[in-house]
Amino acid sequence: MSTNSQHTETIIQYLDGELSGAELKQFEELLAADNTVQQELENLKLAQQAIISYGLKAEVASLHHEMMEELKAEPKASANKIYPFIRASLKIAASLFLVMSAVGIYQYLTVSSAQLYNQNYHPFTISISRGATEGSALEKAYAAGQPATVISLFEKETNADYKTEFLAAQSYLATKNVSKAISIFNQIMNKADGAYKDDAEYYLALSYIENKQPGQALAIMDKIHQDKDHPYNDRFSFWTIFKLKLLILKNGGK
Amino acid sequence: MTKASVNYSDKELIETLKQQQVSTQVIKYLYRTYFNFLSGYIKQNQGNDQDAEDIFQEVIVAFIEVVKAEKFRGESSIKTFLYTLNKFTWLNELKKRNRAMLRDTTFYENAGEEDKDVSSLLVEREAKGMVMAIMDKLGEVCKKILVAYYYNNSPMKEILQLIDYQNEQVLRNKKYKCLKSLEQMLTADPQLAQRFKNALTHEH
User: Fold this and answer.
1) Contact at 8 Å (CB) between B52 and B6?
2) Would you tell me the crossing angle of helices B24-44 and B49-68 to the nearest 10 degrees?
3) Which of A88, A149, A235, B37 makes a 20 to 30 Å CA pair with A196?
4) Under 8 Å CB-to-CB from B35, ≥6 apart: which residues?
5) Claim to verify: residue A50 and residue A163 sit in the same structural domain
6) Residues 6+ apart with CB under 8 A from B127
7) Probe site for chain A from B17, B19, B31, B169 (most A CB atoms < 10 A)
8) A107 in a domain, yes or no?
9) CB neighbours of residue A106 within 10 Å
């Protein structure tokens, strides 16, 4: 090994921290006195810097692929956190939809004018006090549940008031003369005076249902359902109107 | 971010990077915290995904070296510093590709003091690229020995297990020859050697 090579070896040992004691002291004296040794030490330090820089670059590069995989997977991971909620919501929505569909189909298949009428018809009641003299014969017959007598008395009447007309219409409805009932309820509805108008309106809707005219009934039922002050408002629920719409659908839109 | 990831404040990150060995944990933290942010700039300015990845690697290496060389003054946040470094590295790359636009030149002219500070770190970007090319010329065995010894601080006994050599003395001789060879390649041209030194030590 040449003298220069020996110097290089010692410089590298110095650079690597392998010199100590007398060897280190001897080298430091040489370094202070010899410019070429100083220059070579600088050059070897430069080489060492290049290695460290290369090593760092290689380390970053070696982690790069792994990190790219991780970062690209992150949106999927976030999505996976969200998807279960969406999936659960969709499942619930789908279940509800199926249940609603099943109910809808069942209602569609079973709904009929007779069924809807029977579910909503409640006979109009009047009270006549025992021994009272004020009630007419027609009223008394109605209160006694004698619709045929009511109709008979009404047909003889030449100047019937609203109440008489209304009770007669109720009796026609009870005896299944629905078209006659509809006619009288409409007469009451068209009069300027409001007596028995709300009652006539409610029973007119029912009469249309009974007469297989659900389309006519819907307009009246919708109006009563929307009017919170209507005395029969609570009789026509959303569900009743829904069933009526199914009936209309079943009747081909009529 | 994974559950196992570690978070650092700016101060903690700088202190951690100043330690002799750079931990993979810190590099992963830099990726998780800044990759999407920095790559967004590249992709918004004529770069594609691969450009964003390449520039990010370069920026991370440059940042760690700047911190180790005590050149990070901490006058701005790490995020701001990395953003500026990323921007200049990318504009520098665009110019290298002869695709720089007039506004890029204007950008340099209008750069603030902090930007100029960062841009000076990139003056020797090309020289550093040449150093890396010289390293590649050393050959795989030399690179493996030198990186294991000087970058990973691995003891000779461990390196001997990586390299199929008879004994430690043979390995020492090889390391000596590799280092000497690298030194000669780096200093063959004195002017280039000075540029290499500037590029590696960030001295200007």
Assistant:
1) no
2) 130
3) A149
4) A67, A71, B56
5) no
6) B192, B195, B196, B198, B199
7) B31
8) no
9) 10
Can you give the length of chain B in residues? 204
pLDDT digits (tens, 9 = 90+) for A93-114: 888 998 888 887 887 888 888 8
pLDDT digits 0-9 by tens, B89-147: 998 888 888 654 545 555 555 555 556 566 666 667 888 888 899 999 999 999 999 99
Query: Is A161 a domain residue?
Result: yes
Note whether residue A106 is domain-resident.
Answer: no
Question: A206 and A130: one domain?
Answer: yes
A51 vs B28: CB contact, 8 Å cut-off? no
- Residue B35 and residue A74: Cβ atoms within 8 Å? no
Does the fold of domain B128-201 match that of domain B10-122?
Answer: no
What are the tens digits of pLDDT across the range B11-43? Answer: 999 999 998 788 899 999 999 999 999 999 999
Which numeric CATH code is attached to B128-201? Answer: 1.10.10
List, for residues A215-235, the tens digit of each pLDDT value: 889 888 888 888 887 888 888
Choose the mutation target among A44, A57, A69, A71 for the interface with B, i.e. most B CBs under 10 Å.
A57
CATH number for the domain whose boundaries are B10-122: 1.10.1740
Number of domains in chain A: 2
**Hey, what amino acid is at A60?**
V
ipTM here = 0.88
Residues A225 and A245: beta-carbon distance below 8 Å: no
Q: Do B179 and A60 touch (CB under 8 A)?
A: no
For A243, the enclosing helix (H) or strand (E) is: helix A238-250
The residues, ordered by sequence, that sit 6+ positions from A177 with a Cβ below 8 Å of its Cβ are: A151
| β strands within B6-117, DSSP E | none
* Residue in B with minimal Cα distance to A62: B24
In the block, residue with structure tokens 């220059």? A39
For chain B, the structural domain boundaries read 10-122, 128-201
CB B27 within 8 A of CB A63: yes
CATH number at residue A240: 1.25.40.10
Token pair of A162 as six digits: 């609203």
In a shared domain, residues A144 and A246: yes
Residue A98 lies in a domain: no
Q: Are residues A76 and A135 in the same domain?
A: no
Distance CA A181, CA B122 (A): 99
The answer to whether the Cβ–Cβ distance between B65 and A53 falls below 8 Å is yes
